Amino acid sequence: MTTMLEPDQAGIGGTTVKRIGIIGTGIMGADHARLLTGAVSGACVAGVFDLDAERAGGVAANSGGARVFTDPYMLINDDGIDAVLIASSDATHEQFVLACFAAGKAVLCEKPLSPTVEGCTRILEAEVAAGRRLVTVGFMRRFDPGYTDLKALLKEGAVGTPLMLHNVHRNPAAVPGLPSSALITNSAVHELDITRWLFDEEITEVTVHTPRATAEGGGTQDPQLLILRTESGVLSDVEIFVNARYGYEVRCELVAEAGTVTLDAPPPTSLRARGLHARELPADWRPRFAEAYRRELQDWIDGTDRGATAWDGFAATFVAAACVAALESGERHSVNLPEVPALYRR
User: pTM for the whole thing?
Assistant: First the structure.
């Protein structure tokens, strides 16, 4: 039975087991299916869709025999699906989110909500017209234990007034010739969201600096250094380097008036041998943020409404667009977000 949402509730809520439909069963969709099946309570994977039917069939089998749909809209509108998780290609997010709205179903949409400001605007307008929050955007770092501890320390004033946030975001390798803008829209967008979330204020100004590009990038401007200024004057810098070669790494340091807080993610074991003290780094984001993804999904199923809203998805895309403009022009860009609709004011 589908559980109706309260007017301001973005999660699924209720007490029955929620039957989840997944659109897109690539790396992200398959991993979400695995977590929903074996690590999240109160949910089961009831249906899947992917353009690759064989891949969808494999995920369905590993999820306890979920139905394989041949049409994503049939999945969305099926009475046997209570809520939908969208992990398909970025360009499809808008159409599937809007279809979920029309069906009155809660939806967890992987970032970005839409790759364009115009697409995000249409989603915002549709949700505001519906009068209730139905979509949660997959900015999973908001559920990472390290980031939640950092925000708690900041909120309780443990280190005083924040001044700066230094962010490092490195991947081992990217597709050669990746558009330089993709470093912002596909990777650094997480730091854009985290900056807004940590400080509970908007980004008002952005600059993008371009050092000498690595020869490993195949023509991509990699790395990049983003400088973000918030409403209160906090500076958040983001080093994004997607061809760092050595592994996947995300860390940051908060600098405040009375101290600093450093966020790192060492594995539970480290090696001391042959004159070395070493720890292994993951090859991608999944081991680093495994617990964040699990908590994000559990929160969505429980309906406790702590995830990113459509407004957060819109703001991230809006700021990313300003960063891309700064990258292309080499100039500082102001970020003039519109007024937050009442539906999203906490």
Answer: 0.92
